[in-house]
Write a structure and sequence with these properties.
The complex is a heterodimer of chains A (475) and B (265). Chain A has 475 residues and is of the alpha/beta class. Chain A contains 13 helices and 23 strands. The chains are: A alpha/beta (475), B mainly beta (265). Chain A binds chain B through residues 374, 387, 389-419, and chain B through 171, 174, 184, 186-189, 191-216. Strand 22 (395-404) of chain A pairs antiparallel with strand 15 (192-201) of chain B, so a sheet runs across the interface.
Chain lengths: 475, 265
């Protein structure tokens, strides 16, 4: 069914092709920026942004943590990641706060986002959009009706200037800079990103989207996303990202912090499609207050190495988290993804549904953690992981960890690993469907329970990405 | 002190277990081709124990290894069992723990040959201040392996109980079918329980699954039976015993052994 939908005439992302993602714009601007990270660079970033002194202080403190904290000793090998070869800050267009509208965005950047369907999505289905190119935001918009209700959707650099009290109250309170090495790096060199504030009781009817694009070789992107959903409010935010492939390392170490207040509901969807040169070492975390709901929907298609484990801290009584994810590991890729949930409040509940596909020697890993604290009376948690391995060279691992300190709780974990069912393929091929298409259909059906949680246009994008990964036959 | 035990090819000792006495520190058991043999080891004495058991199951042999641990609640035990399962052989390992203050147990079954069958059943009842950590794995190296791991535990009082299970299938293990089930009944608010079931699969033509659950006694069951006049303490005892007993039904052909295990449950 999704296959059919993806071919629908007029769907925004139905014609996405490799060129849209792999296209390289000229990057002459890179001559002005050096590689590597040091104190001078951090002071330069802070000065360039004309930041308040407290923010510069946080950056420098985070840099001290970064120097002290070692690389993770678990998970994929990161020893090839050379920090001296990464450019941590670069601007393609020197326009503080981004451009006022698409018309004045430099042509080559505008075309890149048009290929990716972003301006069209803004016109047709979104309440607002933000786009980032290299280290800074290029454009941010929000429909007037939401501005009138007090919603703030801004470039994070702008938010630091215009809403310093709000930013200071929440910035890196959910993910502290000493959490791990890449949180520390992020705290030191963050640039750009999104600030979303939904006031009490406001229910956004349409999603907001942010798109992050790296263009130059050896680029690093460190956008900060801070979302505050006040009491009883609701919203849906979609994140997309991509980069062209150069054959040398790029690094993405963004940070997403979400505060979901009492009775609020928030969904964070992401379709990650970084180039296979990229180390995607992103941190995403939400603190969920009483009676609030946090939903994560994620598709990890790109990157050479991904380490991404969205985390929900169920702090309030009766709070709830739902994690849905797809990971596709193709040739040369390691998709180390999962979910972490900390149950602290009473009657909290969580559900994790993960689907992974490994192909062409790719390795997909589910790494999860469920922690039920002594205070989390009557907590419930359910985890389901399904993995498809499409050929004999590919690898799947399922590594969940469950810690329980409360007797009055229920936790279930289930995982299955297998291959495509030959009877299903046989059935479809005897009805005239070519084998490759039959296999792609079954894979689309496998991931459908997750894809259908995305708005239709983004479900189409996800299916299109899967189709592209499935091209060149299954082994 | 190391001892070895050899069962010659063709011997059948399935219904009458070979008793392993005096619990040597290290024991190597070699089982010949086409044999069927059951071993029973009762570990009931000692303060600080370190046991190592190595089982080598030759092609087409059939082995059942039952280890019943009922040490005093002050004892410390560190034990490991490694079994090498050759082509067409089957090893059923039952590891049953009721005693000891501190228990660290590792069970590794390695399917070296094609069509190797590895089954592991682990039961643990951790009470008072007992600390029990169990690591168990099946590693299939050749095609068409078969087997399951069933681990069941009860955590009561202030006990600590941890299960860490792994099923690993190599690229050469096509056609293998194996599952891992971990279940813990957590019946006290002061316990600490952890469960980590892992799958590491390096090829596609296999079936692998795992499941883990950590629950308390079901409120509806308790209410139903209490309303029929069964006192709550008896009820808890009945339900916990029932939970453990279901895992050892494969030993029903050994009534004497089963009776002994029931005594400790």
């Amino acid at each position: 069914m999704n296959n059919k939908v993806s071919k629908r005439k007029g769907a925004i992302f139905s014609d996405l092709d490799r060129l849209a993602f792999d296209h390289q714009d000229p990057s002459d601007y890179m001559k002005k920026f050096s590689k590597g990270v040091n104190r001078e660079l951090i002071e330069m970033i802070s000065s360039d942004k004309n930041e308040p002194i407290w923010m510069q202080g946080l950056r420098l403190k985070a840099f001290e943590y970064f120097k002290k904290i070692p690389l993770p000793t678990w998970g994929p090998d990161l020893s090839d990641l050379d920090f001296d070869e990464i450019c941590f800050f670069a601007k393609a267009a020197d326009q503080k706060g981004g451009f006022a509208n698409w018309k004045v965005v430099p042509d080559y950047i505008k075309k890149t986002f048009e290929r990716l369907g972003i301006p069209e999505a803004e016109r047709r289905i979104l309440a607002g959009v933000g786009v980032q190119y290299e280290s800074e935001s290029i454009y941010h918009s929000l429909e007037q009706e939401w501005k009138d209700l007090g919603v703030i959707f801004a470039d994070f650099d702008v938010a630091v200037q215009e809403h310093p009290d709000l930013v200071r109250r929440y910035f890196m309170k959910c993910v502290p800079a000493n959490d791990h090495k890449f949180a520390a790096l992020h705290g030191a060199v963050w640039s750009g990103g999104t600030f979303l504030y939904i006031p009490k009781g406001v229910k956004l009817k349409k999603p907001l989207q942010a798109y992050f694009r790296m263009n130059a070789q050896n680029m690093g992107q460190f956008e900060h996303t801070l979302i505050v959903v006040e009491e009883g409010a609701e919203g849906h935010y979609i994140e997309g990202c991509s980069a062209p492939k150069y054959g040398s390392n790029a690094l993405h170490a963004g940070c997403v912090e979400i505060f979901v207040k009492k009775g609020a509901k928030f969904r964070y969807s992401s379709v990650e499609n970084w180039s296979k040169d990229t180390y995607n070492l992103n941190t995403k975390r939400a603190i969920v207050d009483e009676d609030a709901i946090m939903e994560w929907v994620g598709g990890n298609m790109g990157s050479g190495v991904t380490m991404l484990y969205p985390c929900s801290i169920l702090k309030g009584d009766r709070s709830c988290a739902d994690h849905l994810g797809i990971a596709f590991a193709n040739e040369g890729q390691i998709q180390d993804t999962g979910a972490k949930i900390f149950h602290l409040g009473q009657n909290t509940s969580s559900k994790v549904t993960m689907k992974s596909i490994s192909k062409g020697g790719g390795k997909s890993i589910y790494r999860g953690r469920i922690h039920i604290a002594k205070t989390a009376k009557k907590a419930m948690s359910q985890v389901e992981c399904d993995a498809l391995i499409l050929d004999e060279n590919s690898i799947s691992e399922t590594l969940p960890s469950i810690d329980i300190q409360c007797d009055d709780s229920t936790t279930n974990h289930e995982a299955r690993v297998g291959r495509l069912n030959e009877e299903d393929i046989f059935y479809l091929t005897t009805r005239g469907i070519p084998q490759e298409q039959a296999e792609a259909m079954i894979v689309n059906g496998f991931i459908n329970p997750i894809v259908r949680e995305l708005p239709l246009e983004y479900a189409i994008e996800m299916n299109r990405l899967i189709e592209m990964e499935m091209e060149d036959a299954i082994g | 002190m190391s001892q070895s035990l050899v069962v010659n090819a063709g011997e059948i000792k399935w219904d009458t277990p070979v008793i392993i006495e005096h619990s040597p520190q290290e024991l190597i058991i070699e089982i010949g081709e086409n044999t069927s043999v059951t071993f029973l080891e009762l570990v009931s004495r000692g303060q600080y124990l370190s046991h190592k058991r190595i089982l080598k199951a030759a092609p087409h042999s059939k082995v059942r290894f039952i280890r019943l641990q009922v040490l005093p609640t002050t004892s410390e035990l560190e034990e490991s069992l490694i079994s090498y399962v050759e082509k067409g052989a089957m090893v059923d390992c039952f590891s049953l723990h009721f005693g000891g203050f501190s228990v660290q147990s590792t069970i590794q079954q390695i399917g070296l040959g094609a069509q190797a069958t590895c089954n592991t059943t682990l039961l643990a009842y951790a009470r008072n201040e007992q600390q029990m950590q169990f690591n168990f794995s099946h590693h299939y190296q050749k095609q068409k392996g078969l087997g399951e791991i069933i681990a069941k535990g009860i955590a009561d009082d202030r006990a600590k109980l941890g299960f860490h299970g792994i099923i690993r299938m190599d690229q050469t293990a096509s056609g293998t079918d194996s599952s891992l089930k971990q279940a813990i009944l957590n019946i006290s608010p002061d316990t600490k329980v952890s469960s980590t079931p892992e799958l590491k699969i390096d090829t596609n033509d296999v079936k692998a699954s795992h499941g883990a659950s950590i629950v308390n006694l079901n409120d509806s069951d308790l209410f139903y039976m209490q309303s029929r006049g069964i006192p709550i303490d008896d009820l808890r005892r009945m339900l916990t015993r029932g939970f453990l007993k279901t895992a050892i039904t494969p030993l029903s052909d050994l009534p004497e052994v089963l009776k002994k295990i029931y005594t400790f449950i």
